[in-house]
Amino acid sequence: MVVTQGVRYVNRSPWLHQLRSIRRVRTKLRSHARAKTVIIGGGIAGVMTAYFLLRDTRTNVTLIEATKIAHGATGHNAGQIVSYFERSFSDIVQEYGLTLAARGQEEIISAWKLLKSIYADVPLTAEFSHFIGYAGCSTLAQVVSHLENKRLRALAKLRLEEVYLSDRAPFLKQIPGKYKQLYTVVPHEKITQLLETRDTYYAAFASKKGCLNGALFTEELVGYLLTTYPRRFTLYEHTPIKALALGTHPVLTTKQNKKITAQRVVLCTNGFEQFTITDSEGSAINTLFHDYIRGVVGYMAGYIDQTPKKPFAVSYFSPLFTKREDPYFYVTRRAFELTKKRTDTLVCIGGPEVFLDDHTAYKRHRPYFVKREKEIDSFVTKTLAFAPLHPLYRFHWHGLMGYTRNGLRAIGAHPRHPSFFLNLGCNGVGILPSIYGGYRIARLIAGIKLPPSIFDVKL
User: Fold this and answer.
1) pTM
2) Which among 234, 314, 241, 256 has a CA at the least distance from the CA of 63?
3) Contact 16, 398 (CB under 8 A)
4) Which of 12, 71, 139, 237 has fewest C-beta within 10 Å?
5) Sign of the dihedral through C-alpha 69, 75, 81, 84
6) Taking a C-beta distance cutoff of 8 angstroms, is the pair 45, 268 a contact?
C-alpha cells in the first residue's frame, strides 16, 4: 500500500470493533459509598479477579473502571494467548531458584484449565482457540538461550515441546553437546513451513498458544456477573480515581470527589499512574508505585484475508534481537467477523514499541502514525509467506503495556498493607497471567495459605 509522509490513522482496534455495544447499562458512582472488596480496573485482570471472588468467596465486589470495560490494554493487544514470560526461564531460575521458577511457570500454565472451566460454566460467544504455535530463531545466541530454558525446564520436570533445527543452520556444529537431546534436526523446508515464512530462520521452538478477543470475553463476562450476582456485584464505569489512601480501611476518592470506604482494595490496572497512593508515611509509597511499572506502547496492525486459514501464532526473532529489551515481531491469525454476515481471517502483526518514562504521557486517542505501519509492512513483505505483498491494513492500534521492574507479574497483598492487593504488570503477555492472578487473589482473600511465589509483591 502506497502512503504519503505524515498520514495518520485513528487508533482502531479489531477487538473493540467486535463489541457492538453488547451491554448498554453503564453506571457512574454518584454518591459516597461503602464496599467490602473494591477492584480498580475493568480490563481482563480486574474482571477475572471479580469473577473468581464472586465464584469462590462470599465477599461483595465493587468494580471501578475509569472509562469503559475492556477499552484499555485489554482492547488494544495482539489477541494472542501464551504461557511463557517476556523474561527467560533461565534468568528467573538464577534469581529465584529452580523450584520457585518452575512453580511460577506451572501456575501460569494452570490458567489454560481455568480458562476452559470458565467456558464450561459461562455462556460466552467470544471465540477461544488453542493450538501449537512457534518461536522462530535466526542466530546461534537465540537458539542456545532457548535451549538452556528447555534444559532447565527438563530438570524441573516441566512439559517440553518440540524443538526443530534446520539442517542448513550454519551454527549447527557450534551448539553445545549438553543440548543434543533437546532438539531434532530437520530439512530446512520444514522450518520454513512451520513458520510460514519466506525469510531465513533456522529454528522453530513449539509451544501451546491460542487466540482470544479479550475485550469481547471481558465484556461478556461482566454481563454474566451482573446477571448472576445482582446483590453481590456492583459496577461503576466512567469513574476515574483521583486518590487511594491506604490504612485499615482503604479510602478511594474519585475525580468527582465521591468517596468509597472499603475493607480491601485490589489494584488491577496500570492506570494508577493517573492517581496518588498514600499511607501514613506520606508520599513514599506513591513514589514506589509510580517507579514500579514502566510504560511500553506497543503498535499493531491488521489486515483481512477473505480466504479461511487455520489459527496461527508465531514470534519471529530476527538477527537484530540480541537482548530482552529488543523488540521482535509477532503474528496472530484467526477467524474474525468483520460484519455479522461474514467470517473472514484476521491477520494481526505487532512489534514496534516505544518506552515511556512517564505513563501519563500515553494518550489512548493519540493518532497512529504511518511510520509504524511502514515498519510492520516491511516485516510482512520480507517474512510472511502467506501474506500478500503490501496488504491493505484495515486496523491500526496501539496499547499501553505495563512492565514491572523484575519482568514478572505482581499478584498478592502489599507487604505492609494486608488490605491492599495487586494483580498487575502484563509485561507484554497478559491474558493467562491476568486469569491466574484473579484466581490467586481470590484464594488469598478466602484465607487460603499459599506457598511463596515469584509473583509475590515486593515493594
Assistant:
1) 0.94
2) 234
3) no
4) 12
5) negative
6) yes
Average pLDDT, the chain: 91
Dist CA 288 CA 183 (whole Å) = 43
Inter-residue contact 14 to 393 (CB < 8 Å): no
Q: Which triple of cell numbers denotes residue 81?
A: 494467548
Q: Which of 109, 105, 103, 122 is nearest to 52 (CA)?
A: 122
Are the CB atoms for 92 and 454 separated by under 8 Å? yes
Q: Cell 495487586, residue?
A: 422
Q: Is the pLDDT of residue 432 over 60?
A: yes
C-beta separation of 299 from 316 below 8 A: no
Taking only the tens place, the pLDDT of each residue in 242-271 is 999 998 899 999 999 999 999 999 999 877
Cell of 298: 506497543
3-class SS shares of the chain: helix, strand, coil, % to 5: 30, 30, 40
Instruction: Calculate the alpha carbon distances from 197 to 109, 137, 186, 327, 384 in Å.
Output: 28, 12, 16, 19, 5
Q: Which amino acid is at 377?
A: D
DSSP 291: H
Domains of the chain: 128-209+293-404 (3.30.9.10)
Q: Residues 348-407: pLDDT tens digits?
A: 999 988 888 766 677 888 888 889 999 999 999 999 999 999 999 999 999 988 888 888
pLDDT over 50 (residue 2): no
Asked whether residue 184 carries a pLDDT value surpassing 90, the answer given is yes
Per-residue confidence (pLDDT) for residue 206, from 0 to 100: 97
Q: Where are the alpha helices (DSSP H) in 262-351?
A: 284-292
Query: CA torsion sign, 366 to 65 to 330 to 342?
Result: negative
Contacts of 118 (CB under 8 A, 6+ apart): 51, 124, 221
